[in-house]
Design goal:
This protein has eleven helices and twelve strands. With 400 residues, the protein is α+β, with helices and mostly antiparallel strands. Helix 1 packs across helix 6 (143-214) and helix 7 (220-250) packs parallel to helix 11 (368-377).
């Protein structure tokens, strides 16, 4: 058995225990404790890189003396550790932290605890940096022992990245499930209320039309009836949007093999028939491969998604709409990109744009893009927004 196989064997029990760990905290504490044991070092610590690009001390073994929960700054090693992350190295090894200027923030601790060696190993999941694993040693290791320790820490870092990735996926799946459950409840309650309002609203609209027929145009009664009719139409639009949203998040999906390029050509034909006189145009750039194959989608929902995005582009005063399809065999998805040259979306709205009832339009319900996202997610897809180079672009990705 070679050295690498021996190291893997040492980590075997830890890998099994990690599979059985209950949560993120237990996973971290377990691996940090075992790293100390297997590498014969004294201390280990995991520093998380959060979504705000901040380094935070997340866990350590032993628990005391690490400053768990503290956010690093320039005085406590942030600059040095971010340089390690940026370089993407497997690890950085410092043999004399007491006198190394890069670790000046550790000088007091290194002197008090007699730390002779420090290992820093970035933890990655695919290309995303999760954080940095640090391991301290007070022993004076020989050159051979250092190499063995480096290999062990590298292996521990890989194992930690896989364990954390599993926990992050679990948290993300739970968040997505909770979000979807909340949307379904919101949709059901909104639908119930909308159905209750629909019948009296139909009566109001019907009587407004009757009053318009029997009253003289230009009279005060006629003007009042016109106002009632306009307000009725606004309320009807809101109720229709709410019912569409309810259907998008809770109704069945009918996924059948479809030619996505053919669907888009039908949409282009309708668009040109409606808008050729007002100077608006649609440009298609379709992947030839998608002409020869069918992908499984709900055609009705795909049509709703695209019509909503096109309608938004028209409302944003766009002159041209570009639609592009692309098959990605490696990722097993197909993508539809819909871009327009209309009014830009405010940067502050980009992260909120798909939330229900979020709108910048005076008479908008804020449900158009929420419905689009619900319809995409109902087919296990994702929708993204990007504002760049004078264009607003939505990208839809659906597994094929």
């Amino acid at each position: 058995m070679n050295l690498k196989d021996e190291i893997k064997a040492e980590f075997y029990d830890l890998a099994i225990n990690l599979l059985m760990s209950k949560n993120y905290k237990e996973t971290l504490n377990l691996i940090l404790k075992e790293i100390v044991k297997i590498t014969h070092c004294e201390r280990s610590c995991f520093i998380l890189l959060n979504k705000r690009n901040e380094l935070v001390i997340k866990a350590g073994y032993p628990e005391s003396g690490h400053g768990i929960g503290l956010k690093l700054n320039s005085e406590t090693g942030e600059d040095f550790l971010k340089r390690i992350i940026d370089k993407g190295k497997d690890y950085v090894f410092v043999s004399n932290p007491c006198s190394d200027s890069r670790l000046s923030y550790l000088k007091g601790l290194a002197t008090d605890c007699n730390i002779r060696l420090v290992f820093f190993s970035p933890v990655f999941y695919e290309k995303e940096v999760l954080g940095i694993l640090t391991v301290d040693c007070t022993n004076k290791l020989s050159a051979d022992d250092r190499e063995v320790a480096k290999l062990k820490i590298k292996y521990a870092s890989d194992l930690l990245s896989k364990a954390l990735a599993r926990e992050f996926r679990k948290i993300k799946d739970e968040d997505n499930l909770k979000k979807r459950e909340n949307l379904i409840v919101l949709g059901e309650e909104s639908a119930r209320m909308s159905h209750s309002l629909r019948n009296p609203l139909v009566s109001i609209g019907g009587f407004a039309r009757r009053i318009l027929k029997v009253s003289s145009e230009g009279s005060q009664i006629y003007e009042y009836a016109e106002i009632i009719k306009e307000e009725y139409q606004k309320m009807k639009k809101i109720i229709d949007d709410v019912l569409s949203f309810s259907g998008a998040v809770s109704q069945d999906v009918y996924i059948l093999p479809q030619n996505i390029n053919s669907i888009l050509r039908e949409i282009e034909l309708k668009f040109n028939a409606l808008h050729h006189e007002n100077g608006k145009k649609m440009i298609l750039e379709l992947d030839d491969v998608l002409d020869r194959i069918k992908v499984k989608v709900d055609k009705y929902r795909i049509d709703i998604i695209l019509q909503d995005l096109i309608s938004n582009a028209i409302d944003a005063k766009s002159r041209c709409i570009w639609i592009k399809t692309k098959l990605n065999s490696a990722r097993k998805i197909f993508a539809i990109n819909i871009a327009n040259d209309g009014l830009k979306i405010e940067p502050s709205m980009v992260d909120k744009i798909f939330n229900p009832f979020m709108t910048t339009k005076t008479n908008g319900t804020g449900l158009g893009l929420a419905i689009a996202r619900a319809n995409v997610e109902s087919q296990n897809g994702k929708i993204y927004l990007r504002c760049d180079k004078g264009k607003t672009e939505f990208r839809i990705e659906i597994p094929f």
